[in-house]
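Complex record, two chains
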Amino acid sequence: MNAPTEYLLHLADNALVLGQRNAEWCGHGPILEEDIALSNNSLDLIGQARMLYQHAAEQIGNGATEDTLAYFRDVPDFRNYTLCELPHMPLMSATAQGDRDFAMTIVRNFLYSSLMVLVWDQLQTSKDTQLAAIAAKSLKEVRYHLRHSRDWLVRLGDGTEASHAKAQAALDQLLPYCQEFWSTSPQESAALANGTGTDMAALQADWNRIVDEALTEATLQRPAAGGFVPTGKQGIHSEHLGFVLAEMQSLARQHPGATW
Amino acid sequence: MTTTTLSSAERAWALLEHLSDPEIPVVSLRELGILRDVRQGASGLEVVITPTYSGCPAMGQIEDDVKAALATEGLQARVVTQLAPAWTTDWMTEAAREKLRAYGIAPPHACASEKSGAANVVQFAARSAQTEVVHCPQCNSANTTETSHFGSTACKALYRCLDCMEPFDYFKPY
């Protein structure tokens, strides 16, 4: 039994886009250890994306490879959560950019990792045996990502006045984007129906528990969820994804077939 | 036993048995549990390897090293990457752990219980879960502290010994 291709792409695109975002810190980390930590985190995510794309490419056939899926699809083809594509800085109008904000990076990695420990755990028993194998590996890695981001969340939240304010601001900005985790999409419904996916709604209580425990320890206030539900996993993205893809895909498109 | 009686799979095993890891050359791929099998497949010799971390950049090098080692005796093989069962540091042999320690890398603890379910996942996130003591590979002191969860490679963390003051790598349980 194979997972629907669009479902594999949803999981892969989440990992690739967040991996690409975290890689932006490579060479720019606030301290050397964090530079290395975020690069390692990216390496894991991009590795997960590669395995998922390889699996999807076998199903698609027609010469599809992990590279054609990563480098030659455009914004509406991507199925990642909007959360994963946002820049590392407080959101401004249109494409205005400020300095990268470490608190945004940490809060996003925490919110995403808290979800993925639950998702990968469930997918270990997917009827798609290759997806189950990928899930077993990814779970081991995302546990380290959660541990890392949670530690920093507590350190920033329960830190100085300035670090607390930045962590709270990042949480206020990013938490509403998590509403997308619980909305339905055609690929997730199809995966659930054929026994290869997982029921996301059933994970919400555990996710809330992981998040709330950490926020309490970090002395941060959980903002109200609000009514905004992002639509990235349906291919309707924020203006930010195009800029991520432009940077990530330009080399492969300018030099087709280039290898190291 | 003479070489003429050995099958190509046996000859390949002999060649690959001691092939070292490109990143940690004191241990072999066999000892690390990366080299899983050498077998005669339908279309020739197959060498089965399993990746460590999903994004481990050494996997490409390992495949090249395997092919180069086989080529020294004129053997060719397809390198098959197998994901399940997922690689774990628990497969590492005792001899390999000792070699790591002698090399200056603290060997991994046994993995946390692999029981499934949300309770285990949630509990992992709690700070109280981080109670393991890592001994300094230089002076064996238990008085060590973690500098960073992530080290020079994906599979290692950075530690520091508070007695002999040496920094060292810890091979993380996976």
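Note: Chain B is about 25% helix and 20% strand.
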